[in-house]
Amino acid sequence: MSGDTEIRPVEAPQPRFALRAITIVGIALSLFQLYAAGLQPLGLFFQRPIHLGFILVLCFLIYPVFGRHRPRGPLGWAIDGALIVAGVVVGAWVPINIDIIANQIFPRDIDVWMGVLTMIVVLEGARRAVGLGMTIIGAFFIAYAFAGSRGELPFLADWMPGILNHRGYGLDRVASQMTLGAEGIYGIPLGVAATFIFVFVLFGAFLEVTGAGKFFIDLAYAATGRQRGGPAKAAVIASAGMGSISGSAIANVVTTGAFTIPLMKKLGYRPAQAGGIEAAASTGGQIMPPLMGAGAFLMSEFTRTPYVDIVLVSIFPAILYFGAVYLLVHIAAVKQGMTGMSAEELPSVRSVLAEGWHFLLPLVALTWFLVAGYSPMRVGFYAIVSVVAAASAKALWTFFASQPTLGGFVALCKRGLDLTLQALELGARNAVAVSMACAVAGIIVGVVGLTGLGLKFSAMMIAFSGGNLVLALILVLIASLILGMGLPVTAAYIVLIILVGPALTEEFGIPILIAHLVVFWYSQDSNVTPPVALAGFAGAAIAGSKPMETSVQAWKYAKGLYLIPLFMVFNEEIILGGPLPLVIWSGVIAVIALVAFAAALEGFLWRAMPIWQRVVLVPGVIAIFWPDILVEIAGVALILAILGANWWGARGTTRAPA
Predict the structure, then answer these.
(1) How many angstroms separate the CA atoms of 319 and 315, rounded?
(2) Percent of the chain beyond pLDDT 90?
């Protein structure tokens, strides 16, 4: 690793009893979630508080108060011990007192103070698991609820522009809104985290522990390794398969990038280029069905659209994104005269499938249950069962095909149990950050509902954009980038859709599902857009390149993240459907536009492009996005003419694409 990469402090080791406690609490949380998902569904005022209590305890065990690179010491353990107890109390309070809470008109003083305690521990947990940015935003919204002539902080009203002013609310009203109903911390975001998201995070953990990640990477290599720029193309395909499983672009980078980035560098890609390609491909994993990270579940709940419908309409846009990254990778390989890897360096598709075909069965089962109409939570439960069944069957087959012994069978069972417990713990660990982000998002949702901030923000957005849809979308993109500097993708999506969703749907007339897809796609850009490109930084650490240079490369390869949502807005039929000829036409011109954009960006397709051709392609791409069929036809004709000239000029040259 070069000296340009950031050197992070080494994490202080946790005491053995703390590691044991993390394991026990994590396994208990996963078993509780599996019980609720597959055996006995629980009411929201049982499921959500208990889930939050488990998550808070795990959070304070995993993330010490003074940071993970310093030992806790007596003071740290005193603080964290008190917070762990508070987490247990918070998780138990509402379920134990649900009958009293449900039948009272005004909250008791003890309920108000428990609400205050819940807000404090949630904000502190978010600071540790998600980052200071999320805590500041949550605290800002609470302060906003208190600001006003009748609020706890009336002096803050003088600091707010007229449109943002409101009456203000007292401590009892805010605490009740946050913790005694389904419109605050225990609202939709945490509800989705405590049901759909957790069970699919756990599904990903079982796949990871059983070796599915390596299977998908090997399969991608076997399929693409011999082509020009093979490892880069394998990164694109492997990231498409792994991204949904990991639920995190950064986790995707470090998982697939550990294999792909060194091979890309060996083949001839510059280190920053290799890291950027992996970051762009890994970001696409969050928009790739069937799992799509946590976003599809939240989107389904917010829009009241069946989860399977979200998955189906997202397939074509995801293919467009990965196709654009794949094409840019191919062009870069051809421009640099790269060759593929030799057959000796690669596994064969047949051998990879022979070794790991059973990993395809859980994905088939998952898809079948979704199409059959099962709830996402029940689908996730059965998907986990199918992973365990497939891995167990494969292990038993291998065992009995060799020379079975009683001792070997006992060892096999012990290993199976160890892997199961590892997966249960890993799933719980991986869910902490998302659940904490969703809990703080509940604070934001509660304040927005209490104060009417959503409508006020919509009015501001219309004023700033002057009613122009393109300017409004640019404002959404800028806001997503700013939020993404301090928030993970899921949290940025929730905050943005709460604030700008009403304006996009009610004032600009964008259908609600497309509005959510646009905001969700734009919320991914913090992974690849400088100055804060988290997936780009992770790629730089593996590639040994400069973080900012790698982020610029990631931003370049991920351009589909910005163009495809625009195409959804101006060509609604690719999401909402319509007459078949129109849907086919829109799909074809979307592909043509992305090919033209990639060629203009790289200055190369079949051969190098003169500058005038690159300049002329730009209005052609813009015309395809124009919501007028005649303008679209003119744009397609212009693009095809330029690309045809490029192909004609390349005939007979030695540098033809592989």
Answers:
(1) 6
(2) 18
Peptide bond into 9 cis (omega under 30): no
Mean pLDDT of 531-543: 75
C-alpha to C-alpha distance for 514 and 520, rounded to whole angstroms: 10
Rounded average pLDDT over 210-226: 76
Residues 343 and 224 in one domain: yes
Rounded CA-CA distance 352/222 in Å is 8
User: 82-115, pLDDT tens digit by residue?
Assistant: 999 999 999 999 999 988 888 888 888 899 999 9
Q: Is the pLDDT of residue 622 over 70?
A: yes
| Cα–Cα distance, 428 to 531 (Å, whole number) | 31
Same domain, 327 and 463: yes
Are 462 and 516 contained in the same domain?
Answer: yes
Q: How confident is the model at residue 133 (pLDDT cuts 50, 70, 90)?
A: confident
Q: What average pLDDT does the segment 238-255 reach?
A: 65
What is the C-alpha to C-alpha distance for residues 346 and 267, in angstroms, rounded to an integer?
Answer: 14
For residue 228, pLDDT beyond 80: no
Q: Which of 55, 135, 147, 177 is nearest to 440 (CA)?
A: 135
Q: Which of 570, 603, 638 is the last residue of a domain?
A: 570
DSSP code string of 395-452: HHHHHHHS---HHHHHHHHHHHHHHHHHHHHHHHHHHHHHHHHHHHHHHHHHHHHHHT
CA distance 29 to 441: 21
Examine the domain organization and report whether 229 and 325 are in the same domain.
yes
User: Among 507, 538, 570, which residue terminates a domain?
Assistant: 570
How far separated are the first and last CA of the chain, in Å rounded? 32
Same domain, 476 and 615: no
Look at residue 377 in the predicted model and tell me its pLDDT: 79
Three-state DSSP state, 627: coil
Sole residue written with tokens 């360096």: 345
Residues 566 and 584 in one domain: no
Domain membership flag for residue 319: yes
Q: How far is CA 624 from CA 547, 563, 645, in A?
A: 35, 11, 19
Mean pLDDT value across the chain: 82
What's the domain range around 602? Answer: 578-653
Amino acid at 362: P
Q: Give yes or no: residues 566 and 602 share one domain.
A: no
| Same-domain check for residues 521 and 595 | no
Q: 517 and 565 in contact (C-beta within 8 Å)?
A: yes
Percent of the chain with pLDDT over 70: 90
Under DSSP, is residue 604 helix (H, G, I), strand (E, B) or coil?
Answer: strand
Provide the β-strand partners of residue 604. 608
Q: Which residue type does 486 have?
A: G
State how many domains the chain has. Answer: 2
Regarding predicted confidence, which is higher, 658 or 194? 194
